[in-house]
Amino acid sequence: MKKRPDIAKILFIITMVLMFLPMLQQFSGLINFKPLKGVTNEVPKPVLSFDNYRSGKFQSQAEKYMSANFGFRQPFIRLYNQYIWTCYHKTNVESLVIGKDNWLYEHYFVDDYEGKRALNYADNQEELKKLLRDNAIRIRKLQEILEQYGKHLFVLVEPGKNRVYPEYLPDSCVKAPDSLVTAAEFYPYLFDSLGINNMNCDKWFLEMKGNVGFDLFPQTGTHWSNIASIYVTDSLIRYMEQLGGINMKNIVLGEQYIEKKAKNSDNDLEQMLNLMFTMHDVPTKFVDFAYDDDTTAVKPRMILIGDSFFWNIANNAHPDKVFENYFYWFYNSTIYFDSSFNNTTQTDIVDQLLNTDYVVLAACTGQLYAMDWGFTNRAILHLCYDQDEIDSVFNKMVEIMLTSPEWRASLQEKADAQGCTIEEKANEDANYLIYNYPERYFTELNDEHPTPRNSILEALSAHDDPVGEVLRTMLNNPKWMEETRQKAKENGQSVSETMLSNAKWVVCQRGMQAIDTTETAGAN
Questions:
Q1: Half-sphere exposure of residue 514: CA atoms within 13 angstroms, side-chain side
Q2: Alpha carbon distance 263, 159 (integer Å)
Q3: What DSSP line would sit under 137-161, residue for residue?
Q4: Residue 239: which H helix or E strand, with range?
Q5: Comparing C-alpha atoms, which of 382, 318, 391, 374 is closest to residue 352?
Q6: How many angstroms separate the CA atoms of 354 and 376, rounded?
Q7: How far is CA 262 from CA 115, 163, 259, 277, 284, in A?
């Protein structure tokens, strides 16, 4: 008689395998899974100690760590996401909105369409208009200051998917009334009326829609499409040529072609869904292109302060073929394509501005409310005042905060809640006030045309000043500037301070040599 299998043993073995296989995967990483897309916060591995164990912190930390790092986490999450997408047409990604025909939108675009986004920045229409007008005036002032030194600033208004393709938004979306002011409608009026250089791609996209033979925004992406980014780059170069009066390399457009699937960033929102399978193959149009071989073309330098739309240009249009260097100040925080600096807080903004040709403030219509992310305030403050003047105002503010009983009590409460010292909190608040409301504390910035009083700029402006002559030579000598930056880092100074002291030293040395020559000639 054939012996029947022991069902209990088989089930026990299967149970043990299912229990320990994820543990084995977690510690050995036998299988490499495709990483999940989206922003993730790394959970540190807990450290076992008597105090942590007794207080219960270790158990809590271990639970969070295991939840974020268990074996087969990626395929399990993708499987669950596929289940809720296929069965219920839903997603757990809070930042995404599913539109008609599976068109995907980021939530902030939908909020802007409904008029809700403005409420994050102002309590009412008049307050919003004032906020936008004040920032536009600062941009105009900064543009005027930079023009004095041969630098060109302009605003790049990037389009919004909600404005270009509102027909695919969910039926539940209710358009904001026409009487409601949005940044996308008010800012272009301010730019034109104040004489601010601007390239309005939002208006351009609305005019082109339906007339170009391709989608300006992809169905499953949030930025302008790959092919649209090439045409934007072409227009961007031509605008910069016109603005600066220079000749740059231009794009030569080739044939358009169709790929069966979206690629690169054209499906970045679909990637955020983290599904097991693609939604469906979306035929996508692309274009061949190359840059001309104009030997007379110049390669300018550029700093772009902007949101994520520039990534399409950086990844698809090869801007390194057009610019000598280009630095991408992502949300005026992280710096990309700069080997010297990783964050804007590490830079001397005066040095950066004097060593570029174009400054671009770029934001899509949904991000225009926070456009430039504090860059203009910081730039205009440091161009018009020396660091010691800024430090003097800062120190007085901190002193007032710490000596005022009411203010000190408020600071202490916030410091306790955030786990920092009251002095650290006072420094943080003073810094916030100075750079968000500079006109309150530096009254000359309220002038219609503020004067750049930074010592470097004053010297550069005086063409009969030998110090200014040396500074101009220094700025046009990349090797000298690199040595100056290294010296500033070693001495713990700003680049501007080091430039000025070096220029004065050179002038002093020239004067000493002139005296020596005169004395020698007299002796002969």
A1: 6
A2: 21
A3: HHHHHHHHHHHTTT-EEEEEEE--H
A4: helix 226-244
A5: 382
A6: 15
A7: 31, 22, 7, 14, 5
Question: Are 380 and 142 spatial neighbours (Cβ–Cβ below 8 Å)?
Answer: yes
Structure tokens at 408: 């000190």
User: What DSSP element (H or E) covers 301?
Assistant: strand 301-306
Which residue is listed with tokens 């045309």? 449
Cα angle 479, 484, 486; round to 5: 95
Please answer whether residues 408 and 477 qualify as being in contact, where contact means their C-beta atoms are separated by less than 8 angstroms: no
Tell me how far apart the alpha carbons of residues 63 and 45 are, in angstroms, rounded to a whole number: 10
Nearest alpha carbon to residue 381 among 145, 47, 42, 94: 145
Tokens of 302: 């550029």
Strands 358-364 and 152-158: parallel
CA distances from 380 to 188, 267, 455 (A): 21, 39, 14
Kindly state the DSSP code that residue 34 receives in the 8-state scheme: P
Q: Which two tokens stand for residue 115?
A: 């008029």
* Contact (Cβ atoms closer than 8 angstroms) between residue 355 and residue 301: yes
CB 197 within 8 A of CB 153: yes
CA distances, 89 to each of 82, 85, 97, 102 (Å): 9, 4, 11, 9
The amino acid present at 179, given as its one-letter code, is S
Separation between Cα atoms, residue 224 and residue 264, nearest integer Å: 12
Which residue has 């320990």 as its token pair? 20
Rounded CA-CA distance 29/25 in Å is: 5
Rounded Cα gap, residues 467 and 507, in angstroms = 6
- In tens digits, what is the pLDDT along the chain, a chain of 524 residues? 455 567 777 777 767 665 665 555 555 555 566 766 765 666 566 666 766 766 666 666 656 655 555 555 677 777 888 888 889 888 888 889 999 999 999 999 999 999 998 888 888 889 999 999 999 999 999 999 999 999 999 999 999 999 999 999 999 998 888 888 899 999 999 999 999 999 999 999 999 998 988 999 999 999 999 999 999 999 999 999 999 999 999 999 999 999 887 776 788 888 888 888 887 777 889 999 999 999 999 999 999 999 999 999 999 999 999 999 999 999 999 999 998 889 998 899 999 999 999 999 999 999 999 999 999 999 999 999 988 899 999 999 999 999 999 999 999 999 999 989 999 999 999 999 999 999 999 999 999 888 887 888 888 877 777 888 888 888 888 888 888 888 888 888 888 888 888 888 888 887 666 555 444 444 44
Measured from the Cβ of residue 115, the count of other Cβ atoms closer than 10 Å reads: 16
Amino acid at 461: S
Q: What is the CA radius of gyration of the chain?
A: 29
Under 8 Å between Cβ of 282 and 261: yes
